[in-house]
Amino acid sequence: xxxxxxxxxxxxxxxxxxxxxxxxxxxxxxxxxxxxxxxxxxxxxxxxxxxxxxxxxxxxxxxxxxxxxxxxxxxxxxxxxxxxxxxxxxxxxxxxxxxxxxxxxxxxxxxxxxxxxxxxxxxxxxxxxxxxxxxxxxxxx
Length: 141
Known about the structure:
Number of strands: 6
Largest sheet: 6 strands, parallel
CATH superfamily: NAD(P)-binding Rossmann-like Domain
Strand order of the largest sheet: 3-2-1-4-5-6
CATH architecture: 3-Layer(aba) Sandwich
Distance between the termini: 54 Å
CATH class: Alpha Beta
Radius of gyration: 17 Å
Shape: globular
CATH topology: Rossmann fold
Number of domains: 1
Helix content: 40-55%
Number of helices: 5
């Protein structure tokens, strides 16, 4: 399986490394060449320097042959545009987009884009944790 990971910050690089570890052929794309260092000296996957909204950059990264695209830049709008390009223009069903704004993530999810909102995940986890802790503390009192 072949994946493109657009955005090679903390999240994107970790996803690229994990996909590569489990046997995927991975190419990471980032505007900043220094982001390659996040993948480590032994990175055997591909790396393309450029903006993920640039069709030439996506072509150079091999999007035409990709089975999946993960979009994890630091900008919601950028991620949504790249995700729509991958899904609608290139026909890649397995396109997953990180969106920090929960409302925006819901809207685009309803429009058919597979979105992950770390903010929503954190809100749910923190709420569940505090409720569990409060209930446990109340039961011990």
